[in-house]
Amino acid sequence: MSYDRVRDSQTIIGTKQTVKAMQAGSVKELFVALDADNWVTDSAISFAREIGIPVILVESKKELGKACGIHVGAAVVAITVE
């Protein structure tokens, strides 16, 4: 399951931080919650596809946040290159 991969990896949470990390070349996968607003997620998705980073869509930002160990929802989460 996708949430397990997030739970077991080092992550970056949030659109701005994720885009910065992608620019630095330190992201290997991007997770995006389907129930997040498009204006929050579109820039990260577009940039990830442009530079060839896989984008995985998950159902819930609440569950994505929970998988990251935070108590709020997460719209965009990146798994970093180890």
Automatic annotation (TrEMBL):
Signal peptide: none annotated. InterPro entries: Ribosomal_eL30-like_sf, Ribosomal_eL8/eL30/eS12/Gad45. SUPFAM superfamilies: L30e-like. Residues 8-81 form the Ribosomal protein eL8/eL30/eS12/Gadd45 domain. Gene3D superfamilies: 3.30.1330.30. Coiled coil: none annotated. This is Ribosomal L7Ae/L30e/S12e/Gadd45 family protein. It comes from Lysinibacillus xylanilyticus. The lineage of its organism: Bacteria, Bacillati, Bacillota, Bacilli, Bacillales.
